[in-house]
Each structure stands twice: as C-alpha cells, then as structure tokens.
Amino acid sequence: MLNPTVPKPGPAKLTKNAGLEEWLEEAKQCHYLPESAMYPDKITLVRGNHESRQITQVYGFYEECQQKYGNASVWKSCCQVFDFLVLAAIVDGEVLCVHGGLSPEIRTVDQIRVVARAQEIPHEGAFCDLVWSDPEDVETWAVSPRGAGWLFGDKVATEFNHVNGLKLIARAHQLVNEGYKYHFSQKSVVTVWSAPNYCYRCGNVASIMNVGEDLKPKFSIFNAVPEEQRAVPAGRRGAGEYFL
C-alpha cells in the first residue's frame, strides 16, 4: 500500500492511495474495492497477478463465492472489474507503482499506457510481466522460477528510471518479513508488503509507504491484529480453508 492516510470514523479525509498488493485474497475482510468506488479520485487499485480468473479459482475466491451465493455470478462480476484495473500508477511523475516489476518489452512509461488491459492476464508479454516480474541479483534479465514474468537486475531498473525520469519503482508481489525492502545499490526499487502475518501463519510485519511533497518515502510498520481482537462479521466463518 502506497501513501495512504488511514481514515478514522467520521468524515473521510484521505490523501491519494495506491493499492499494490494482491488485495483480493490477503485477508478475511477487504474494503479496498468499495472504498475505491467511493473515493475514485483518492484511491487507485493497481492490478496484481491474483486479480485474474485463473488464480482466484486456485486460491479460494471462486469457491467462497460459490458457497456464499450459490453460483458464480458474483465471481464473474468481480473478474470483469479486475479487467479494468490499472496496471501501474505514477506519483508526481517520479515514483512508479506496479504490482510485479518490469518487462523487456517495455522501455518507457508511455508503453505501459497503451497496453490493452481489459482482458484476462495473459501467460506472457508486457501485461504478464508487469504483474509477475521480480527484482533479483542478475545482470539484466533472467528466467523467473515462477513460470511467468522475468527476473530483472540493477542495470535494467536503473536504466528504466533514467529514461523515464523516475526516482523509484514501488512494487509488492513478494513477502518481506520486515514489511519493506530496497533493492540494488542505488535503491532504485522497493518492495512494500502490506499484509501482516500473511495467510495467518507467516508472522511477518507489514508496512505502508508514505510519500510526501518531498517525494522521500517514509514507512509505517504495523503488526496483525491479535486473533482475540478480530471482529468477524455476522454470518462469516472467518478465514477460508485456503488460508489454513
């Protein structure tokens, strides 16, 4: 999660927010989607690799919709929403927000703008790479062990930032036990992980990256709410079996 001011009960006072996580299946309760509809000029949801038909059938969202509503109509409607989520966002022209990483098919930000996004995530190509790629200690590009996207190195990130006048690439996609992690010698990429105690068993902390007028990132670290303090809405059984 990038640059939010967490609202307290009462009139909403929000700065601009970008959600980078696989926000659909990170928790029992997720308010990102309705809040983005309520405050479209304040909240931007960036599509991740889990916001797809294939992945949601593997990680439980499809099954949850079937159990709760008796059919797949809600799941299908959500998938249609996924198809229209943005693939990236830019903060003041200098911080690129993307879920996964870079692509050998994309050299400029303008090329991201023209990617045909209203579709299921393809298995290869620029669209796929943006939601699946990872930074790694490689010279330029390397095959990703994920089976989709690429591993990209310091040279690739530095050149991309230089060409596009960027200072930083902020992304998610990889669990970071400390909540966030800078990559490469020039700190050209940062991974921001905002799901504490991932899957209710990893024990990690999470972070929110705040970017002020000076564009210098500051991180707020937080832990998961203790189990005994969690309020599960009436009719909810809690975490699905896919979290266990």
What does this structure look like?
- Strands 3-4-8-10-9 form a five-stranded mixed beta sheet. A three-stranded mixed beta sheet has the order 5-7-6. A two-stranded parallel sheet has the order 1-2.
- The protein has a single domain (17-224), classed as Metallo-dependent phosphatases (Purple Acid Phosphatase, chain A, domain 2, 4-Layer Sandwich), CATH 3.60.21.10.
- The longest helix has 11 residues, at 154-164.
- It has helices at 32-38, 53-58, 61-69, 73-82, 109-113, 126-132, 154-164; strands at 17-19, 43-45, 89-91, 95-97, 134-135, 141-143, 150-152, 168-171, 180-183, 189-192, 206-211, 217-222.
- It is α/β, with parallel strands linked by helices.
- The protein is globular, with a radius of gyration of 18 Å.
- The chain has seven helices and twelve strands.
Write the layout of secondary structure elements.
Blueprint: E1 17-19, H1 32-38, E2 43-45, H2 53-58, H3 61-69, H4 73-82, E3 89-91, E4 95-97, H5 109-113, H6 126-132, E5 134-135, E6 141-143, E7 150-152, H7 154-164, E8 168-171, E9 180-183, E10 189-192, E11 206-211, E12 217-222
Parallel strand pairs: 1-2, 4-8, 5-7, 8-10
Antiparallel strand pairs: 3-4, 6-7, 9-10, 11-12
Keywords: Hydrolase, Manganese, Metal-binding
Organism: Glarea lozoyensis (strain ATCC 74030 / MF5533)
Catalytic activity: O-phospho-L-threonyl-[protein] + H2O = L-threonyl-[protein] + phosphate
Strand content: 15-25%
The name of the CATH architecture is 4-Layer Sandwich
Q: If you compute it from the alpha carbons, what radius of gyration comes out, rounded to the nearest whole angstrom? A: 18 Å
The CATH top-level class label: Alpha Beta
What is the straight-line distance between the termini? 24 Å
Helix share bin: 10-25%
Strand line-up of the largest beta sheet: 3-4-8-10-9
Helical segment count: 7
Total domain count: 1
How is the CATH topology named? Purple Acid Phosphatase, chain A, domain 2
User: What is the H-and-E element order?
Assistant: EHEHHHEEHHEEEHEEEEE
Helix/strand/pairing class, anyone?
alpha/beta
Largest sheet: 5 strands, mixed
Q: Average the pLDDT over all residues and give the rounded result.
A: 87
Low-confidence stretches: 4-15
CATH superfamily: Metallo-dependent phosphatases
Task: Name the overall outline.
Answer: globular
